[in-house]
């Protein structure tokens, strides 16, 4: 497990910090909704104080030697002619998509697809992606799972140094992991992230991917003792969606359709953090999606 730490300075009591959770992109197949993803990337790029966490499975990373999941007919048009160079071709495309927002990335989690191509074909997708990302920003590696500790510090705006050093700070701790399992129902996915939150009890935010849903169960309120005061400790827990259509009209089926999985919840959630108000708001978007590729 990794620990990532960030100190984020701000000036106004009204500042809001939106955090996006981008994962399960699966670039490289026609089922990946690159147009929708491009719009979200532009939104992150243009939003003041925006940050994001990479939740794994950036490329589909399935090679012809994967007899269970390989389906050459569903490769994205830009993959044609590169069937023998899956990893490098997909890592370049992922970098091209995410390049405008590398400077806003809090960390990159490794997914099972990223891991499988390393284990079975000896191509380290994550290492290559991080090399490209770090040309644009200081992007930490989050491993399979990680804590992300963010300390928001409000800086005094007076002209003298003493006033500038009077800081108000707020700590927000996240636990992020790509996830695992094959939950088939919304209730099972919600239970998976709820169980995770019960393990990481001092985390304000628990985010998990892999299951392509955006379930967000209500967490029981916890009571804690902090600096001589009894406080209510409320948190958020949620799945982080996907950009891969499990079902698409007019193209050969991907492995998700063949296995009868639930349709993916396209897109991703974001959390609005207001440090001075000690408030977090989870936002999810439901959309009617055209499944024609």
Keywords summarizing the entry:
alpha/beta; 5-stranded mixed sheet; Purple Acid Phosphatase, chain A, domain 2; globular; 293 residues; 7 helices
Description:
With 293 residues, the chain is of the alpha/beta class. It has one domain (2-283): 4-Layer Sandwich (Purple Acid Phosphatase, chain A, domain 2), CATH 3.60.21. The protein is built from seven helices and twelve strands. It has helices at 34-46, 86-98, 112-121, 125-133, 161-164, 186-199, 255-258; strands at residues 2-10, 17-22, 51-54, 105-108, 145-155, 167-177, 205-208, 222-226, 229-233, 236-239, 270-274, 279-283. The protein has a five-stranded mixed sheet, covered by helices on one side. Helix 2 runs parallel beside helix 4. The longest helix is centred in the middle third of the chain and has 14 residues, at 186-199. The protein starts with a strand and ends in a 10-residue tail after the last strand. The relative contact order is 0.19.
Short overview:
The protein has 293 residues and is α/β, with parallel strands linked by helices. The mean pLDDT is 92.
Number of helices: 7
Biggest sheet: strand arrangement: 1-5-6-7-10
Oligomer: single chain
From the alpha carbons, calculate the radius of gyration and give it in angstroms: 20 Å
SSE map:
Elements: E1 2-10, E2 17-22, H1 34-46, E3 51-54, H2 86-98, E4 105-108, H3 112-121, H4 125-133, E5 145-155, H5 161-164, E6 167-177, H6 186-199, E7 205-208, E8 222-226, E9 229-233, E10 236-239, H7 255-258, E11 270-274, E12 279-283
Parallel strand pairs: 1-5, 2-3, 3-4, 6-7, 7-10
Antiparallel strand pairs: 2-11, 5-6, 8-9, 11-12
Helix pairs in contact: 2-4
């Amino acid at each position: 497990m990794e620990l990532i730490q960030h100190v984020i300075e701000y000036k106004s009591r009204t500042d809001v910090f939106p955090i996006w959770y981008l994962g399960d992109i699966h670039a490289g197949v026609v089922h990946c909704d690159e147009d929708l993803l491009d719009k979200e990337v532009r939104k992150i790029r243009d939003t003041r104080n925006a940050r994001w966490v990479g939740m794994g499975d950036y490329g589909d990373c399935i090679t012809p030697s994967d007899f269970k999941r390989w389906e050459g007919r569903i490769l994205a048009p830009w993959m044609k002619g590169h069937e023998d160079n899956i990893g490098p071709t997909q890592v370049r495309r992922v970098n091209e998509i995410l390049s405008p927002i590398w400077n806003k990335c809090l960390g990159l989690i490794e997914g099972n697809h990223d891991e499988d191509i390393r284990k079975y074909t000896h191509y380290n997708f994550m290492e290559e992606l991080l090399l490209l990302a770090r040309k644009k920003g200081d992007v930490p590696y989050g491993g399979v799972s990680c804590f992300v500790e963010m300390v928001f510090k409000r800086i005094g705006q007076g002209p003298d140094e003493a006033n500038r050093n009077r800081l108000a700070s707020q700590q927000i701790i996240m636990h992020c992991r790509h996830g695992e399992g094959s939950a088939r129902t919304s209730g099972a996915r919600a239970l998976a992230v709820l169980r995770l939150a019960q393990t990481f009890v001092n985390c304000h935010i628990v985010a998990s991917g892999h299951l392509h849903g955006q379930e967000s169960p209500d967490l029981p309120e916890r009571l804690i003792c902090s600096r001589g005061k009894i406080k209510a400790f409320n948190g958020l827990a949620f799945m982080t969606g996907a950009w891969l259509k499990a079902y698409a009209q007019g193209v050969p089926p991907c492995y998700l359709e063949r296995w009868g999985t639930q349709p993916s919840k396209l897109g991703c959630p974001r959390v609005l953090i207001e440090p001075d108000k000690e408030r977090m708001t989870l936002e999810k978007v439901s959309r009617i999606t055209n499944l024609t590729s």
